[in-house]
Amino acid sequence: MPVPSVLNSLAHKPLLIIVSGPAGSGKTTLCDRLLAEFPSAVRRIVTATTRPPRPGEVNNVDYHFLTPGDFLKRVEVGEFYEWAKVHGHYYGTLKSEVREPLYQGHDVLLNVDVQGASAWRDQTRADHTFPGVLMTVFVTPPTMDELRRRLEGRGKDSALVIEERMLNARHEIEQLLTYDYCIMSGDREFDYTRLRALYLAEKMRVRVRS
Which of 46, 92, 98, 175 could form a disulfide with 80 if both were Cys (CB 3.0 to 4.6 A apart)? Predict the structure, then answer.
């Protein structure tokens, strides 16, 4: 007996997974682990930025590193789904990076800030590519003191940059209620167990498509 078409539709529903959180929340590590565990199902989107590469970062692998002029030209011709200026640099998601994997039935994972997440909510309402696919997760440290400890422990930023990131974090955390899910960060294993559970639950959820 053939499988009813409604069951086929449930088996091939891609997700657009948005993960956000303040710098130091651990969201990048969580995304990397999800990609490593589900390499055939989840595709990482390489976003574009005008910030300079950090040691060890590779162009077109970690980011598409663009000059400010090139970035803004691409904005003008409509190549981005969303873009924003954060910490003095432009960041954005190219349309070409998202459409193809979704059309192929893969889940797409995006690590973006709260501005980017807001833009994606608008996109999913306006673009027929995205009905019923969006899943948003916010990762936050349990306290601001813990966030400061993590930022200082990374050894990547000056005291001035840390203060800027702390100020931005307060604004970002205020947007928490606009997300589907929140992970109150504990340790890395605790956090990943929860992100993994959310992902698997969403794959089983009956999603209403417009």
Answer: 92
pLDDT tens, position by position, 147-184: 899 988 887 788 898 898 899 899 999 999 999 999 99
Distances (CA, A) of 163 to 27, 64, 111, 133, 144: 20, 27, 22, 36, 12
Which letter, b or e, does each residue of 170-203 get, where b requires 16 or more Cβ atoms within 10 Å of its Cβ?
A: eebbeeeeebebbbebeeeeebbebbeebbeebb
Question: What are the C-alpha distances in Å from 63 to residues 5, 92, 93, 111, 170?
Answer: 39, 10, 10, 11, 26
In sequence order, which residues have a C-beta less than 8 Å from that of residue 86 and are 6 or more positions away? Answer: 113, 115
Distance CA 56, CA 156 (A): 14
Indicate if the pLDDT at residue 186 is higher than 90.
no
**Could you tell me which of 44, 34, 35, 43 has the C-alpha nearest to residue 106?**
43
